[in-house]
Amino acid sequence: MLEKKLISNFRDFVIDKSDYFIHNYKNQKGKNRWNIICSAMDWITVGVENINTIEFKSNNTSELYKDILLLISMTDVILESVTQLSRVIPDATNHIVTSNNIFSRNDFCDDLKHFKHTRAVFGAHPVNLNPSQNKDDRWYAAWPYQGYDYNYDLQAYLYPLDTDEEMKIFGVNIEEIENYSKLIYGNLVKLQECISLEFENYIKRLNKVTIEYSGNVLEDINLASDKVKQRLPNTYIESRLNEIKLYFNTISTLDVNKDVVNFFLRQVEVAFENIKESIQKLDYSDVEDDKIFSPTVPQEYQYEFNEYFSVLEGEYVLHEHQYFETISNVLGDYVSIRNEMTYNEKKLLINAGLCAMNCKEDVR
After folding, report:
1. Which H or E run includes 273?
2. Which residues neighbour 319 within 8 Å (Cβ) at sequence distance 6 or greater?
3. Taking the model in full, what pTM does it have?
């Protein structure tokens, strides 16, 4: 059995840092190595799940062969996936654990070569074997059988092409294949350590570069947006910056709304300061500010607000005018919203009104 938590932990780590991996691996000199990571994680999962279903219950040669073939094939899938990850992740090849003592009868003195030959004999291409990589060294496997050598669970005769060669017997031992799969699969721990160190070094390196802001809100919003894309893209942060930019670019046309809007913009500016700090530290985990970007809506009117927020995002919603009337009445004690206003101004006033409603102090 292979511990599924190894690939689960590895996948969780990569997903948690997916902004970094997509940013740094999606286009490396025209090569999308992020896709390699995703593919490898998927197929390691497939390999682990399939290996863990094998029970080796039957003594029937055909049934036993099918189970062994599945074990060999899925071990090879894990092996190739781990190999691909080690090629993509910097310095990982120096930390991959290999072996030459798992297979007891190993003519190759190398477990990788022995395993690849086992895979060839019992599944991949038994009718075209070339163990020495010499073009004249050709062998052909007979069908598998259960012999009298108890070191093997299945054996096969290997017929030589060369008339001077004698027939050989080659066998497979289930426990040895299982041990080899555990060794290869266990490299995920080392690979995760490598990418974790890579991520930490990346953060440390960029943290040494201080972002210099001008003090002009709109200029600083544009700079922050550029820095997010350059340093560590994050869709949540980028959407929040776009929203902040919208608020500061929108003119409130009625003087009666001035105090509430100014109060709201001060809260938005505080939220922006938090975002700037998170961009500098490259740590977006604490950026929430739900009271600004997702303010509490009166429970009895949640449907109307949600529908009208969809309108403000450009969606067509039936009964739009009806929802607008309800919202303008609910927020009437805080802001005055008119139907002829632009969607941007309505969005500003609705959020400012909700902010004032949820605030305990009098902002008017």
Report:
1. helix 258-281
2. 307
3. 0.83
